[in-house]
Amino acid sequence: MCGIIGYIGNRDAVPLLLKGLKRLEYRGYDSAGIAVLTDGQIHSIKKSGKVSQLEVLVDDTPMKGSIGIAHTRWATHGEPNDINAHPHLDHTGKIAIIHNGIIENHETIRKVLEERDIPFTSDTDSEALVQLVSAIYFDNDKLSFEGAFRTALKDVVGAYGVVAVCADEPGNILAARMGSPLVVGIGEGEYFLASDASPIVEYTRNVIYLDEGEIVKLTPDNHSISRIDSSEIVSRGSVEIEMSIEQIEKGEFDHFMLKEIHEQKHTITDTMRGRLNLEDGTTHLGGISDFKPSILSANQVYITACGTSWHAALIGKQLIENYAQIPVDVEYASEFRYRNAIINPDTVLIAVSQSGETADTLAAIRKAKNLGALTLGICNVVGSSIARETDAGIYTHAGPEIGVASTKAFTAQVAVMTMLALSLGRRKGFDAGLGRDLTKALHHIDNDIQTILDDDQSIRKVAQDTY
User: Fold this and answer.
1) 82 to each of 15, 50, 126, how far by Cα in Å?
2) Is residue 397 included in any domain, yes or no?
3) Which residue range(s) make up the domain with 292?
4) 227 plus 281 within the same structural domain
5) pTM > 0.70
6) Which of 36, 314, 354, 430 could be cross-linked to 68 through a Cys-Cys bond (beta carbons 3.0 to 4.6 Å apart)?
7) SIS domain: which residues (predicted)?
8) In a domain, 246, yes or no
């Protein structure tokens, strides 16, 4: 699994898809591929290695069409090679899919289909899905491609963000989400699909994030969203993403991590803009203002997260306990979702995630909500799943983070934790004078950050001497 990009509209899809794959390279991958619908046929090229190597093959084998899908793969089932790369085509060559996630019952599906003499060519779990869709589609003359796609997904156990096209129904693209994020980009007479917004922001900022268990059908002029399990139509407006091309390009820096380190002065300013009350020594966090009494009166407060966000959560615990005198437990989301934690209507769960799509953190939120807890989110991406599924929350406004090692997103999360702790503390009688000192320090911290970054040569020398 790794990166997904799809397109339907009136442009030549090939250069758009290849550029999209390059925007997705930051996610890491071992192979890449592309498939385009042309004259009632699917033309596909796949290559292990870099997107640039795929691009050479595409240039040598001209392909053109206004509907297409492309994928960067990081191997989970089957070794990284040309055959196991995505897209995967069914045995007739008429259906193609790209897939992020894991099909847990792929061996069972494969066995059933192989007993019907349906040939498999790869070692992947993803091929089981496309062959299943194909078998259902061609076994039922009255079933549409969408109907076959939906039926197949009901038989699948596992996680997926999947996009599919069919040569017999070339006017649409289908996609579905269960455990792996997908975003729909809305253009003028065109639509985009991607695993995150970075490959589509060049063309549109109006997007719809699919929720768990949803299918979307795209034509050049329209979209429809429905539930996988019930076919119930879902009505949801688009959101405007806070991202620009400049934010997802390296500019003058050698790599994204270095760029994002140097952006921290500005991202911290954006995180705290309009939220510091220097006169009263407190902070204004409008997204959760109505829920502060519930936090203050809770009998149990959890902060849950994964990865770097978990480290921000640990700092948040120290801050909240110090300033607000509220006991806090920090839980790694992948553990919390499975253990028998004490959760009831007097519990507050604060979930922290840069992307707002972290699967284990989302599962922890859903568990807590099902047991009646108040759920709050701290995330970076407007309209993301965590932002939608929590009762309220705080955006960090750090901008897109492309580098794998978190930098500006982490410091923005710590800044939010500090403001949250101070806001709760002032409600519980934390000294106003100390509050003013702290808000003043926060107000000037961007300059302190810049002072440190201006001394990057000394920092570089320490790193070289140490490592």
Assistant:
1) 21, 12, 14
2) yes
3) 252-466
4) no
5) yes
6) 36
7) 291-430
8) no
